Automatic annotation (TrEMBL):
Localization (cell): Membrane
Keyword field contains Transmembrane: yes
Cited Pfam families: RDD
Principal subcellular localisation of the protein: membrane
Organismal lineage: Bacteria, Bacillati, Actinomycetota, Actinomycetes, Micrococcales
Official protein name in the record: RDD family protein
Membrane topology reported for the UniProt record: Multi-pass membrane protein
Taxonomic source organism: Arthrobacter pullicola
Annotated transmembrane regions: 20-44, 56-76, 112-132
Assigned keywords, A-Z: Membrane, Transmembrane, Transmembrane helix
Length: 268
């Protein structure tokens, strides 16, 4: 995964496509282009057979080759901001090295080099360059300043805060007030990212948040409780209590609605 820093100093994480995904998307594009080219050859050969001068027929066939192999891919990539049939199937997109959308200049450079890399050399040059490149770039990508990015990335499931076993008896009897929304968000974000923090920062942040949360919780946790475990117990207990409260409220609302529908004037 690569990172890009925008002009507003925001770090974006962009996952580059694997070599296998790029190879398969390229294969799909090449097969579709060859099928389209053979279809044009068939139409030209059957429609204009004997009607035109042989030199003119060859010129039309050459124009068809240039149209299918260069003009159409460049136009599609420019208009769709880096897409093609193969990339659409594989969930990929061509982007600039800074993460921006490709323009005509980048698409044209890639298209011209694709004629050499993929068609004239049967993909051997593209294979040798991409297999040893960190982002699976081929020569056209290096000259154009682009690479293939994965668009369809499976979202990681949200982390679930687990109640520490040693604090279950205390949490069941604790009086936990409503935490301010900013404090609740900071505590939830800390628990989600704690494993990726350095130990000193993790300890300091956990202690600071536990001190703030303790103003809304009574009684204090058992002596010797780790601040991070205390936060996990409080957040897990709040979640479970909110879920139980909302579930009971939903049941009561359903019962009231059922009684109202049974009243005599309900059918009038």
């Amino acid at each position: 995964m690569s990172t890009v820093v925008t002009g507003e100093a925001v770090v974006l994480e962009l996952r580059a496509a694997s070599f296998a995904a790029r190879a398969l998307s390229t294969l799909i594009d090449v097969i579709s282009q060859l099928l389209l080219l053979f279809l044009l050859f068939y139409l030209v050969g059957n429609t204009l057979d004997g009607a035109l001068d042989p030199a003119l027929t060859r010129a039309l066939l050459l124009a068809a080759v240039v149209l299918v192999i260069l003009v159409v891919p460049v136009a599609v990539e420019t208009l769709t901001r880096g897409k093609s049939l193969g990339r659409l199937v594989m969930g990929l997109r061509i982007v600039r090295d800074d993460g921006g959308a490709v323009r005509f200049r980048q698409a044209f450079t890639r298209g011209i080099l694709a004629v050499l890399e993929i068609y004239m050399l049967a993909g051997s040059l593209a294979f040798l360059v991409a297999v040893f490149n960190e982002k699976s770039k081929r020569l056209g990508d290096m000259l154009a300043g682009t690479y293939a990015m994965r668009e369809r990335v499976k979202a990681a499931p949200p982390p679930v805060t687990v109640m520490p076993a040693e604090l279950i008896p205390w949490a069941a009897l604790a009086d936990i007030g409503r935490l301010p929304d900013p404090l609740s968000r900071r505590a939830a974000r800390f628990l989600a990212q704690a494993e990726r923090m350095t130990p000193p920062a993790r300890t300091a942040m956990g202690t600071s948040l536990a001190t703030e949360v303790s103003a809304f919780v009574s009684p204090p946790p058992p002596p010797g409780t780790v601040p991070e475990s205390y936060l996990r117990a409080v957040m897990a207990q709040r979640r479970d209590r909110d879920f139980a409260r909302l579930s009971a409220q939903r049941v009561r609302s359903g019962q009231v609605a059922e009684r109202l529908h049974r009243l005599p004037f309900a059918d009038r």
